[in-house]
Design a protein that fits this description.
By secondary structure, this protein is of the alpha/beta class. Helices cover about 55% and strands about 5% of the residues. The chain has 15 helices and 6 strands. A 6-stranded mixed β-sheet has the order 1-2-3-6-4-5. Strand 4, helix 4 and strand 5 form a beta-alpha-beta unit. The longest helix is centred in the last third of the chain and has 18 residues. It starts with a helix and ends with a helix.
Length: about 300
């Protein structure tokens, strides 16, 4: 990345980070209202907006996924001291970070409770992060429109999701994380930058692997739009007010999760493996023992 791009993006990069710097966290009342309407249990932090317990979802056989075992999150590099204490109360035994070295260079490492170090398992973003920063850093509306407009941002997102399935390293990192979860002696949290794409895909896969219906797993995936909405809107407003972007709505396809993005991964899965079970075993390398252990850990 050129010095010009670095200079233009320096102020916005930390806030951008695919939306990593949140606006004010949702109030406890708002979080409680959300939990009343669904089993989604948000872990309310000041420095991250998309931290959730994956428990509470009903399975095909009428059981429910245990709370307090698996957590999904956005990046934890901006969490406050109070947040670190809250994370400590979760009793986490492992935190898996899917961010690439390039993302870590801009965002910085996780802030975690004493004695807990992140497990780095980079998963490709197919150049998404670099392209987004380059577009924003150009400060040129024509360049930004050429790079992100006219369906190009949406097409890039579909490419990103297809790579979650097709890329061997991505499959290895996701598979290793599920194996860790199956054998963990305590709660495990996994995250990327916004907690919506790499994290969203693995959350979807995990829920389906333990017997949660596809439609319910999709609802959990789409819930990132609710949790990220205020922070993402604030970021766009800041970029426009600062003059960095004339049309920050170009970022919306990159900030959101959408059914057609998820479908891109599922289409790749179908083409490459045929069905979901063969993806779990042949793609992610999970044995029957791994799958049984995963189910036993997450479902009573």
């Amino acid at each position: 990345m050129t010095r010009v791009v670095r200079g233009a993006v320096a102020a916005a990069a930390a806030a951008l980070a695919m939306g990593a710097l949140p606006a004010t966290a949702p109030t406890a009342a708002a979080a409680a209202q959300h939990r009343t309407a669904s089993p989604i249990h948000q872990v309310v932090l000041q420095g991250a907006v998309n931290v959730r317990d994956l428990g509470g979802y009903a399975t095909y056989d009428g059981e429910r996924v245990r709370y307090g075992v698996a957590y999904r999150a956005d990046a934890l590099n901006k969490v406050s001291d109070t947040d670190v204490a809250a994370l400590g109360r979760l009793g986490l035994r492992e935190v898996v970070d899917f961010r690439t070295p390039f993302e870590l260079q801009y965002d910085g490492p996780d802030r975690l409770p004493t004695g807990l170090a992140p497990t780095s398992r980079p998963v490709t973003d197919s150049g998404l992060y670099a392209q987004m920063l380059t577009a924003i850093g150009s400060r040129d509306p024509a360049t930004q429109d050429a790079m992100l407009g006219h369906g190009k941002a949406e097409a890039l997102m579909r490419t990103v999701y297809g790579a979650f399935v097709s890329d061997p390293t991505a499959r290895a990192q996701f598979g290793a994380t599920l194996k860790d979860l199956a054998t963990a002696r305590g709660p495990l949290l996994f995250h990327c930058t916004s907690g919506k794409d790499r994290t969203g895909w693995l959350s979807y896969v995990l829920l389906r692997a333990v017997g949660v219906p596809a439609g319910t797993a999709q609802e959990d995936y789409l819930a990132s739009n609710t949790f990220r909405a205020a922070a993402d809107a604030a970021l766009r407003a800041g970029l426009k007010q600062s003059g960095v972007m004339r049309n920050p709505d170009l970022l919306i396809p990159l900030q959101e999760v959408r059914v057609d993005y998820l479908d891109a991964a599922l289409s790749q899965l179908s083409a490459q493996y045929g069905d979901f079970y063969d993806y779990l075993t042949g793609g992610l390398g999970l044995s029957l023992h791994d799958l049984a252990a995963l189910r036993s850990r997450l479902v009573p």
